[in-house]
Design brief:
It comes from Fluviispira sanaruensis. This is Thioredoxin domain-containing protein. This protein has 199 residues and is of the alpha/beta class. It has five helices and seven strands. The chain folds into two domains: 1-54, no CATH class; 67-196, 3-Layer(aba) Sandwich (Glutaredoxin). A seven-stranded mixed β-sheet has the order 2-1-5-4-3-6-7.
Length: 199
């Protein structure tokens, strides 16, 4: 009887030992791999003894420097100071484009209200001659700033389609992009900005 008990005990201990060895073989590569991953990852805590640092995601993209001038140029003579207004509409227009004309008329119609609420408007021409812009100004009689976009600005914006408008906050953050907007889309945008600035 004693012999059977010893055999049973040795079988049980062999099974337990085998089970522990099996678990060790399974878990050891996983812990070794995670330690290697931590060593490779500079943001992982523990390996360096510090708390992991998580970089915040940007909430908005920032508008590059909006430079412009009285005539087409590479660098432009002036640039927009976004902090001078609550919001800015930055538009790239063309004198030959009918949709640009529609948008200009909508902005002209609402310009007094926009100005009263500290919303700036600047329209920049990208593919126009001085003569075509002079004719456009006579026809539209814009109340807002309108000049030629610098080549640097157009390159930074990757030569946007005409017309394109950006609604920009006072810190230079892009809030909305309207690419080739219809009259309705432009009016919706203006109405939303009016609501935001109504207090």
């Amino acid at each position: 009887m004693r012999m059977h008990k010893n055999i049973f005990d040795s079988n049980a201990s062999n099974q337990i030992f085998t089970y522990i060895a099996f678990l060790f073989i399974l878990l050891f590569p996983l812990t070794a791999q995670s330690a290697e991953d931590k060593a490779k990852d500079p943001m992982a805590g523990g390996a360096q003894g510090g708390v992991p640092v998580i970089k915040p995601l940007p909430r908005h993209k920032l508008m590059p420097t909006v430079s412009y001038g009285k005539e087409p140029s590479v660098e432009g003579e002036k640039s927009v100071d976004f902090s001078s207004m609550r919001f800015w509409y930055v538009a790239v227009l063309a004198s030959w484009n009918p949709r640009s004309e529609e948008i200009s008329m909508i902005i002209n119609k609402n310009f007094k209200q926009l100005s009263a609420r500290k919303i700036g408007v600047i329209a920049l021409f990208s593919q126009d001659t001085e003569e075509s812009v002079a004719k456009w100004r006579k026809k539209i009689m814009p109340q807002f700033i309108n000049d030629f976009a610098s080549r640097n600005f157009l390159d930074a914006m990757k030569n946007p389609r005409v017309p394109t408008l950006w609604l920009v906050g006072s810190e230079g953050e892009i809030i909305q992009i309207l690419e080739m907007p219809t009259k309705e889309e432009m009016m919706q945008s203006i109405n939303k900005v009016m609501i935001l600035t109504g207090f």
